[in-house]
Sequence to fold (242 residues):
Amino acid sequence: MLIGELAAQAGMTKDTIRFYEKLGLVTGRRLPNGYRDFPPETVAWLLYVRTAQTLGFSLAEIARLGEELRDAPDSAAALSELFAEKIALIDARMAELAALRADLDARVGTGCPLRADRPAD
Amino acid sequence: MLIGELAAQAGMTKDTIRFYEKLGLVTGRRLPNGYRDFPPETVAWLLYVRTAQTLGFSLAEIARLGEELRDAPDSAAALSELFAEKIALIDARMAELAALRADLDARVGTGCPLRADRPAD
DNA sequence: CTAAAGGGTGGAGTAGGGTCCAAGGTCAAG
DNA sequence: CTTGACCTTGGACCCTACTCCACCCTTTAG
Fold:
């Protein structure tokens, strides 16, 4: 799969993919003419990257995860550990969100805004 | 409260607070000598800013929320609407996280990594 | 043969979010 | 009156994540 098709399917620009390649987030073979050639699963991976990113993981973190996956291809245990780690992180974020939600929820209807940045005028 | 104390209590540097002031995220009075003077509630506001930020809201979004709060100080209805909006956003993010979590969870133990960025070698 | 559509490179520029000076004013203690 | 801990400003600089650009090569269609 050439970069253009990958970009179209993953919903990002070619530039972004080349940028991700520099970061080691994706790796492609090269065809004899120098063109990048990506396996079809890269689409799923890029979609995963986008998701992880919107959830607050930096590209560096995501790349690290990817590398760790590549480095421990056989060890299901190691993978489980990695995922468990990420899941714990997600749970923590969800708890934070829940707390913020509860906070906002409590304020709804009370008429008590967060006007904390005004001097008491 | 002077900027140094505020910074210490909010767990950020003075530079960051001055930067936030430029963005309109915090506003302080000035003392006759030119020093910034913040009301004590600013600490809570800054902690709130940090939380919202780690949850994926940009400083611009947070500032907008703050402004809207200031612009509609009396209308509990308007406030409720704003909060309801943020809550909806939070719910959406939580759903995304839950989905990612389920995704990772399903992979744990299956030994099926995300090795989508490798050419099939 | 040429044009269009795809690809490649390096490097500059942007926006967001800080972080770090350097030069200088203010104020309380000794 | 000096020292030290505060504060002020402006501007340079850094990182992240892109985005755009100019310039050049490759492949296919007419």
